[in-house]
Amino acid sequence: MLKKTCSNAVVMFALMVLVTGAGSASAAGSDDQSAPGAKKPLVAYYSRTGNARMVAKALGKHLDAEVAEIPSEKGRGIFTIIGEQWFWGDDRQKPFEKKLQDYSPIIVVAPVYLMQLSAPGRFFIEEVIPDGSEVYVFTTSGGPLAGFTKKGIEELVAESGLIAKGVYGFQAGKTQEVFDTEVADFLKKTPVR
């Protein structure tokens, strides 16, 4: 009987060691994933002519970030753009495919039309990104980003309950290779974290 009791005690001890060891191994693994800074950046873009898409791809490449398109349902010609920018500025968007709370920062890339961020970019910032998220905005346009346009985008981000980390502009009309080089040079001077 004593032999059987000792044998049972050894088995129980071995099981406790295994369970405790496995529990602490899985806990250590979950700590790594939930540690601050463990989230990856996400680049979300809207592009009508391809310039914002090229900037988004370059950012994704240099930041090791996922890249996803903002799913606007509207077709945009010049009259729609004028109407959105001056009169009825909303966009219709399909549900975004990513869980945005799993990413930080969220980097929005969208064109500027008529000195304002395009409607898909505005709608995504105002309605889709979760409150309290850290957000960078990169724009594309035919010329340099105007100071009052930059200020308006910073205000839009802040008024949407988000943390504005920076607003920057790239001039449109370049190749992917040129955007890759410009984005790499930009990120050397201005880190995005």
Walk me through this protein's architecture:
This protein is α/β, with parallel strands linked by helices and 193 residues long. It folds into two domains: 1-32; 39-189, Flavodoxin domain (Rossmann fold). The protein is built from six helices and six strands. Strands 1, 2, 3, 4, 5 and 6 form a six-stranded mixed β-sheet that branches. Helix 5 links the parallel strand 5 (134-141) and strand 6 (163-171). Helix 2 packs across helix 6. It is globular, with a radius of gyration of 24 Å. Residues 1-34 have low confidence and may be disordered.
Summarize the structure.
The protein has 193 residues and is α/β, with parallel strands linked by helices.
